[in-house]
Every structure is written in structure tokens, then in C-alpha cells.
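Collaborator request, handled under Task 6.
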Amino acid sequence: MTLLILLACSSRFADGTPDPTPLKAPAGEETGGEHTGADDTGDTGVVVDTGLPDTVAPRGFLDHADCDGLWGWTIDDDAPDHSLSVRATFDTGATASATADQPRPDVCGGDPCFHGFDITIPTELEDGGSHSFGVEALDPATGLGATIGTGTVRCGATTEPMVRLYESGASYVEYQPIPDVFEKIESGGRDAARRMMPIDLHTWSIANFNRDLLMFSEFALTDSSSRTLFRYHDEEGAVHVSLAENSRETDRGNNHQTAYSDFRIVEGTYTVTYTLLPGSTGHPSLMLWQQREGNRFVVLVGNSPTGTEQSSVEGADGYVVAFGETVSRSFTVSFLDEENALFKSNANGFESR
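C-alpha cells returned to the collaborator:
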């Protein structure tokens, strides 16, 4: 079974990186504005006199929102050396707070610069439901909140059933649709507004093109909350035949079908788990790599990944999965703006018993 995972990656702060010029708001990014009082904050309206200037409200950007946390940056140009308090308020009434004191040299054009924050999602929200939230940075001069980001998260067990894309006997392909987290699409493409990347899940069953060595296997994609987003289970060694696009592809054993394999996924940490089931007569080599512009590759999971660019990816780069073995590896999805790289995971067959 071959698994091709296609998506882009970047640093944690990509696309939310602010203009490095101090006191200048990054165009189209920050959501803080002129501080006009209680009416535009949704706060209590109680003004605290701290002796600090109060010319503008805090500004900032929410880089990431998922079950592993809410993170981003915020700064008050009235007090650029001050690390602000940040508060997230959810539709259940739950709140979570943090101090924006993590290193973010990109915010003010140099180091030291401590304006990054990371807010933990309250455990009470891990109920499988979708919850909206708003993130506020508190003005150090007044204590009033300025909204720097909004969104939704859905964490924990889900009550919705998996959607079966294919089923034959004990074999199947299924996925869990989760709005703004994992979605089925007809063709690949990024969603910049929601910072979602295309992911292509490509599966095989044969260990060689002669079809006399078959791999019975299961592949699962899970998120940081242990939710299963995609599962491919094959006890026939023949799912590739049923999913093949045409007779020529059937003869080659290629089952790459956009109707079954194309999805879009939000930023976060995910795990791929591959099991070579009993009865297999061939076994795979599992690898995960980043494919950059100009077909340059960086192997991330495999035999002995170095983290450096190379001109190709070969079978020897992969981790050989033993009969009956289960292999789990984690990877991170990040949104890329400039370098539209791809992640690919592959489990190629070997002609050995």
C-alpha cells in the first residue's frame, strides 16, 4: 500500500509575520485599531489608570487555531517593550489566558522581542462539538480588550459517523469530515483564508506489479486529539483493483483516484499509522519527505533522515516495515506563502516474502 500525502509546510509564524518596522501596523493582518473606549471592546468599560500612554489599541495576529492551541502575536505600540495579557473567550463562556511573552523577533524587527502567545484549549471543550471563540489582547494602560482574532475549534470525540468512500467485504476507505479541519475536495488547492492545505492520500496493495506479492494493510491519519480523520483498510490485497481509474491503470496496479484521495487539512500536528497485517506476502518501505521547488527533497521520516536537501528519493531512504509491524510517525502541517512545498508519504512494495 502506497500512501502519498501532499501538503505544504512552513514555520509556525508563516503568513502572520508582521512588518518588522516598529510602530507600523502590517497591512491587512492585525485586527487592533484606534482605541475608542468600552463600546468597541466588548469589555466592562472600567478604565484603569496605569500612567501608561493610551494612543492606540493593541494589535496582533492569530497565526494558528486548533485543538493543540491558539497561538500568534500581539503588541501595543504605546508600550512596545510590554508583554501583553491575552484572553480567549469561547461560546460556552469558558475562557483561557496567557501572557504574550514568547520570543517573536519578527514582530519588532529584532531580538529581544517578546510578544508571542500560546493559549491552551480548555478541556471542557473537548466534546466533539464546534465552538467559536474570540481572542483579545488587553491594553496595559486601561485593561480594555482589543480583538486580534476569531475562529472555531472542534476537539475531542465526534458524534458524526465516518463517511465510507469505498467498501468491499472487509476492506474499506473512509474519512471523518470536520469543517475547517479536514474536508473532502475535488481538486487540490490552498485555502488562504482558513490556512488549510491540500493533502493527498494515495494507497496501494501490491508489493510488485506482477501481483503475486500482496500487502494486506491498514493506514490511518489522526490529529493531535487522537481523532481518526482517514482510514484505509485492506484485507483482500485487491482494493487497488476496484479503485483503479481505467484498465491501463488497473494493469499497472495504480489506484490514484482524486474522488477518494483528495482532502484539505488545517495546520497542526498529525500522525500516520501504518500496519502490515498478517498474511501479507510483500512488505513496504515507509517514508515521509518534503518536496520543494525544483524537485528538491528533504526526507523527514525513513531509514536515516538527515534533514538536508537531496536531488531524489529512493527506496533505500525508507523505513522497511516488518510483517505484522505497526509504525507510527508524526508530522506537522503548516501554511506556506512563498515556498509552496509538498509533503509526501510513501509505502512502496518490495519483491520479498
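The cover message to the collaborator said: "The first strand starts at residue 59 and ends at 66. The chain has a mean pLDDT of 75. Please let us know whether this matches your experimental observations."
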